[in-house]
């Protein structure tokens, strides 16, 4: 007697239904981005209420988790599709491009207290340009990621290990969200801190469009056996995030950001020190 599980028609229906699962994670990703935008706007309308800024930052953090899950779920259930990839890219533009750009502008430039209102208005417009450049850089980063099959970083790492070429847009959004959460949502109130924040956001945009390598963590396979020490480390990390989310998330995001910067500088220094000596024909002798 044939079981119901062996019915080809039922298997086809089940396979088609599994495509809904990764799309649900992507939909939650979009919802988190929309919630982050609404909370940032609400904070600005309520005279810089830090609670709403903090909620916006946390929403972006949760979206990063769901963004990592939808791809893994699709690969584990063998339900990857062109539609899912395009939907994921559009969701990333909203959640990790538009939402952190609006949050960075409102949190970093909207609550400044300056006696010169004309200068304050110009600084706010400058902040709008800077955060727009962050959004544009993130969109360009996604477009490059979608069209390149096997991109190679300008500073190659260990052979056989997977890297991102340029900081991924969830990483850039995570850095902005972690800084806001580290400040517990209290916005920047001084003009000189706003200028530092503008330079910081511009740096994130540059890192996203650069060809520097960043860890992808795609080589970690949760279906394989791992040592018990890894489980202990993961449990300790989760506990630190729950108990000390402000410090833990800030340290993780800043470390990830500077890992890409220092790896590029180290590669350039090592490459310069290993350059072969010039040949006798290339040596220019002084008179």
UniProtKB/TrEMBL annotation:
Q: Name one GO molecular function term.
A: CDP-diacylglycerol-serine O-phosphatidyltransferase activity
Pfam families in alphabetical order: CDP-OH_P_transf (PF01066)
Keywords in UniProt for this one? Membrane, Transferase, Transmembrane, Transmembrane helix
This protein's record includes keyword Membrane: yes
Entry's transmembrane regions: 20-41, 53-69, 90-111, 123-143, 163-183, 189-207, 228-244
Residue ranges annotated as coiled coil are none
Q: Name one GO biological process term.
A: phospholipid biosynthetic process
The UniProt entry, under InterPro entries, shows: CDP-OH_P_trans, CDP-OH_PTrfase_TM_dom, CDP_ALCOHOL_P_TRANSF_CS
EC no. given is 2.7.8.8
The source's superkingdom equals Bacteria
- On whether Protease is a keyword of this UniProt record, the answer is no
Q: Which GO terms describe its cellular component?
A: membrane
Similarity section: Belongs to the CDP-alcohol phosphatidyltransferase class-I family.
Which protein are we looking at?
A: CDP-diacylglycerol--serine O-phosphatidyltransferase
Q: Species name for this entry? A: Koribacter versatilis (strain Ellin345)
Q: What is the lineage of its organism?
A: Bacteria, Pseudomonadati, Acidobacteriota, Terriglobia, Terriglobales
